[in-house]
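We treat protein structure as text, and this decision shapes the records that our systems exchange. The tokens are whole numbers drawn from a learned vocabulary of local backbone shapes. Below, we set out a record of this kind in full and without editing:
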Amino acid sequence: MDAADPAFRSHIQVTKEVLEDIGAGKLPSLAILNKIDLVDSSRKALLEKEFPEAIAMSLIASTGGVGLLPAYAQNFLLSSVTSRPLKGDTPTVELVLGYKKSNQSPILKLLLSRLDELVARVSKKAQ
């Protein structure tokens, strides 16, 4: 959830609808309050009260949240950001992609056109 977006509750509803539409509505989920660095302390307190299970984080400033990044991302992190490699076997994380069908973003179109190829590549590496 984009914590800085005043209309984020409608985005939550759209996301829930998409998850239901693809049969993933009953799967466990994790709420993340993204861009938490852009909200003032009173709004942050309200969001934390409304979404106590959510992890608050930002690409700029983490507030006790955890982000999983590819190893090469370490080269782009600010010196104030701590990163630690995962130990042991690489975990498998199931992902769901939610988007509005009306979204005309060229980047989204490219991602969707290459999704099957990306999934096949990742599946091949996992074998």
Q: What stands out?
A: DSSP finds three helices and two strands in the chain.
